[in-house]
Amino acid sequence: MRDLSLTQRVTLANKPLGFNALVVERTSRCNARCSICYQGSSPQGKEQRGEESPRGGQDLAPELIRRALLEGSRLDCLNKRFHLAGGEAFLDAELCLDLFSYAHALGYYDITTTTNGFWAKSLPRARSLTRRMREAGVTSIELSTDHWHAPFVKPATINHCMQACLECGIAVNLRLLATQEHTHAATLATLDPDLLNHTSRITCGPVFAVGRAAEQIDADDFFRRGAEGRCFAVLNLAIVPSGDVFPCCAGMDHTDALLFGNIASHSLADIVHNMNQSPLFRVVSYAGVARLLKPLQEMGYAMQASEAYGNMCDLCTTIFSDHKMVADLTRYNAQTESEQIRLAIDYLLNASTACV
Amino acid sequence: MNILPHLTDPSITAQDPYPPWLFRDINLSTATEGQGKGSMQPDIPAFARWLFAFQKWQSQRFVAENNRYYLMLGRRVHVQLPCSWQEGAAAYLQQLAPVTARAGHALTVRMALEHALHPPAEICTLLQNKSIQKFLFNLPTPIPPQQIAPLLEMVEFLLACRVMPILLGDINNLLRSGLLHNQRLNAANFTLYPSQRHMDYCPTHPVDSCATHFSWFIDRNGDIYPCGGLSGIASCRLGTLQEGMETILQRIAQHPVLNFSQLIQSGPLLSPPDPALVNRTHIPYKCLLHRRQIQRL
Ligand code: SF4
Ligand code: SF4
């Protein structure tokens, strides 16, 4: 972090964080138990190494979600997009509809959700629910399907879901994941080609070695892209089932070593303030999490080279799951900061002596 | 001073009353003028002047508005290039890339496959320097067999440069091409846009907020529209590249045809569509209806 340019330092110190959406991960329960699930969801809730994790079956209370939506509608650093995710949020479809309507009434103009589409078992059922979703303000859905979802949600169900959404005007973003062995082409070949051709978008990405995927998928099967990159432009305000609020929903939301506040006891505005005030998180978002590798190595941690990580979020999840690492980094940061202040004072003193 | 008083309705956008927050993308729809090289429009110096004036206005508002976050947003510039590299696309992109980089914006390029293949050295350098964030290929149906290998080669080059490829085309066609079996592509993040999206279906509930569709849509004449769906309709123009930001914002606030408050909150008010109307265009059904309604006025 000592090697940043002046502009980077100014950004790092001053630029307010902004968020693309309010993401609510209402539950970690899911009808499925996919091997690639980074959250480790299951019908009983979050699992770690095949065991139910503490508070794993806990769902976020609807009144807390409503409060977050209300507070979020007044935050100027939050784009007015509400995204409801899980686990599988549609285990309680009526609650989902209620939350969509509430968000719509509050002025959120983009209302979206992630689902595996399990509820679209028959076309009439799919039509009935999507019509109600549309009336409640839903603009688009992210429909997850691939080799690992298929045993739990059949391709025919995904087809019903796509068709019903097309008929009522909900945009579908099909989300696919792949490994070396299971490609996107193989998934797409199982779905109705005509519906695929009418869908709004198909977003493809690789599976990373986080969550249950790290436990169940052969290490050689993963793609690795390296941990370089910055995430300040893709942040979301994400509330997890325990009520803890994170600045993203891409991995850090499943860690517990750097917390910013819980929606049950803090206002969203205070939590955003805490995020803005966190030097460690500002480095991650504006300078890139890979910046933390060198100090960690200097402190004696056996970190791998940046290229060995799946992506930046993979490294981020590794670091922020480790309480000791986070405590050491916080100390390191404070030390660097006082060093910088001392250097600045020395510089000013020298400059004023030179003037005299 | 509040430039857009009617957009401060607390039920809509209490905290972000400025459309610039919503107009995140800048779409440059270019065209070649005559046959000569380097005669593409809109003119880059005019675009650069407008962009930097916009930035200046934004920073002034940022200070005046007590550091409102949304006034500091970066933007994405999408440029659609209508000809081959040799016919002027390379020269245009070489001029455009430093302008967007100086403004701190990301750049996405969109080209027909036949024009995009075999980029010259100067474009490869731009890609290697990360001056371009995403590259969209408009694929023909079917993809000519002799273009598959160079497409794969270019996609691999983009991935090596960390530029995200986007493929717009017929999904069956893509599956048949073998492209989606490529290991490098499967290891990367990329997007497919199906060729028939928006087409054929007449949704029962077509209308929703236009907030996510808004952009500064700039056509070959330097005319600015609020979205691609209304481009070319003179009565929907927001201004031109020659005008200052304040003038354009005033026009948005008092637009004679478009009620932005309504469009942001819930989309256009449309009369019931003709049941026989089928969408054969590449714009969403609601935009087709809105466009036809305005053109009938
Ligand atoms: S690097 Fe960390 S904070 Fe940034 S998006 Fe990834 S998981 Fe979230
Ligand atoms: S409905 Fe009209 S204003 Fe809204 S995005 Fe479409 S064309 Fe533009």
Bin the strand percentage of chain A: 5-15%
Head-to-tail CA distance between termini of chain B: 34 Å
The biggest sheet of chain A, with number of strands, parallel, antiparallel or mixed sense and barrel status, is: 8 strands, mixed
The number of distinct β-strands of chain A equals 10
Helix count, DSSP H or I runs of 4 or more residues of chain B: 12
Structural shape of chain A: globular
Q: Ligands bound here?
A: iron/sulfur cluster
As a percent range, the share of strand residues of chain B is 15-25%
Of all chain pairs, the largest interface belongs to: A-B, 49 and 51 residues
- The helix content of chain B, as a percent range, equals 25-40%
The major β-sheet of chain B equals:
9 strands, mixed
What's the multimeric state?
heterodimer
> What overall geometry of chain B do the principal axes of the alpha carbons give?
globular
Report on the structure:
The complex is a heterodimer of chains A (356) and B (297). By secondary structure, chain A is of the alpha/beta class. In chain A, the strands form 2 sheets. An 8-stranded mixed sheet of chain A has the order 8-7-6-5-4-1-9-10. In chain A, strands 2-3 form a two-stranded antiparallel sheet. Chain A is 40% helix and 12% strand. In chain A, α2 runs parallel beside α3 (93-106) and α3 (93-106) runs parallel beside α4. Chain A contains 13 helices and 10 strands. With 297 residues, chain B is of the alpha/beta class. Chain B has a domain at 20-193. Chain B has 12 helices and 11 strands. Chain B has helices at 10-13, 19-22, 44-64, 85-102, 113-116, 121-128, 145-160, 171-177, 183-186, 245-253, 260-266, 285-296, and strands at 25-29, 31-32, 40-41, 76-80, 106-112, 134-138, 164-169, 190-194, 215-218, 223-225, 239-240. In chain B, the strands form 2 sheets. A 9-stranded mixed sheet of chain B has the order 8-7-6-5-4-1-9-10-11. The longest helix of chain B has 21 residues, at 44-64. Chain B is globular and about 50 Å long. β8 of chain A pairs antiparallel with β8 (190-194) of chain B. One iron/sulfur cluster is lined by residues 231, 247-248, 250-252, 284-285, 289, 312-313, 316 of chain A.
